[in-house]
């Protein structure tokens, strides 16, 4: 779709003119535009089939104590896709900070704050709002038995570049292990994509100023979100793994469950890297997956 339709509708809602447009590095499931307005301010347009999920999460967070989120200026639906209009985050994208590894502990503190937002029910906030409630065990089963639309394991197993024996073994362990997962009494907000392209930092104060891209967020066990973050560290900040363990100080049973969730996340990223045809990352990732599976 032409950007002109997005621009026209945005200008109507804001009653301001857009003077210039920049296209930053794009995500996998949406389009993002940074727009300069006639009053010299900047806004962000996020448009796509999954953006309504961002909006549902941000609406929940606006009612919570957690405020390091984009300010929503408006939203609309165009050609059955949602466009979210927000202000532009202040600070430096974590990826572009000098010495980004020095911010690991600050990010872990921020994750704790996000996890303080809770729900009685697990799952994606948008669907919970629609009255579609499931158990935490059902949520996990749907991901790894292929029920969820994105998690088509049979398709991945047909990919000749994927180590199918390794993937089958991992799926076998996870499918068997889910039935023994302990279920938390309340469910935390999990970002599920906390990486160095979704966090802005004030380099002078080391304060995190904004967390963006809440599309994948769910309510669930906080240990799943932490395992997802540990995978980021394993790939890109391996020298910070000790900081992760020292900060979290998991009890024995928590550590075992976090390690199980880490295996789950490793399986997820076989899909991600194979679909994106990131073969170098896939090869490195399968090495990590192999190391994890050996522990079982």
Automatic annotation (TrEMBL):
Q: Do you know which InterPro entries this protein is assigned to? A: AGP_Transferase, Aminoglycoside_PTrfase, Kinase-like_dom_sf
This chain belongs to which protein, by name? Aminoglycoside phosphotransferase family protein
Q: Per the database record, which ranges form the Aminoglycoside phosphotransferase domain?
A: 49-230
Q: What is the lineage of its organism?
A: Bacteria, Candidatus Dojkabacteria
Which Pfam families did the record assign? APH
SUPFAM superfamilies to which the protein is assigned, alphabetical: Protein kinase-like (PK-like)
Q: Which domain of life is it from?
A: Bacteria
């Amino acid at each position: 779709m032409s950007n002109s339709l997005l621009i026209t509708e945005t200008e109507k809602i804001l009653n301001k003119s857009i003077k210039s447009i920049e296209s930053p590095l794009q995500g996998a499931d949406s389009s993002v535009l940074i727009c300069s307005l006639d009053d010299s301010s900047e806004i962000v347009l996020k448009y796509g089939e999954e953006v309504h999920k961002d909006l549902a999460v941000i609406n929940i967070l606006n009612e919570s104590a957690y405020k390091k989120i984009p300010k929503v200026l408006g939203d609309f639906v165009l050609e059955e896709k949602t466009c979210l209009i927000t202000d532009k985050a202040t600070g430096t994208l974590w990826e572009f900070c000098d010495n980004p590894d020095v911010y690991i502990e600050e990010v872990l503190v921020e994750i704790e704050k996000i996890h303080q937002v809770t729900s009685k029910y697990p799952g994606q906030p948008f669907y919970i709002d629609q009255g579609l409630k499931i158990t935490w065990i059902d949520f996990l089963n749907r991901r790894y038995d292929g029920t969820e639309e994105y998690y088509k394991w049979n398709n991945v197993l047909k990919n000749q570049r994927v180590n199918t024996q390794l993937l089958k073994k991992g799926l076998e362990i996870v499918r068997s292990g889910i039935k023994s997962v302990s279920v938390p009494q309340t469910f935390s907000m999990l970002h599920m994509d906390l990486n160095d392209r979704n966090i802005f930092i004030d380099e002078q104060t080391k304060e995190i100023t904004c967390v963006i891209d809440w599309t994948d967020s769910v309510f669930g066990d906080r240990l799943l979100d932490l395992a997802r973050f540990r995978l980021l560290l394993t790939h890109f900040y391996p020298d910070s793994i000790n900081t992760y363990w020292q900060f979290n100080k998991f009890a024995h049973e928590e550590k075992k469950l976090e390690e199980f969730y880490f295996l789950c996340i490793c399986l997820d990223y076989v899909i991600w890297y194979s679909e994106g045809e990131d073969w170098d990352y896939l090869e490195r990732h399968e090495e990590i997956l192999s190391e994890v599976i050996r522990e079982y």
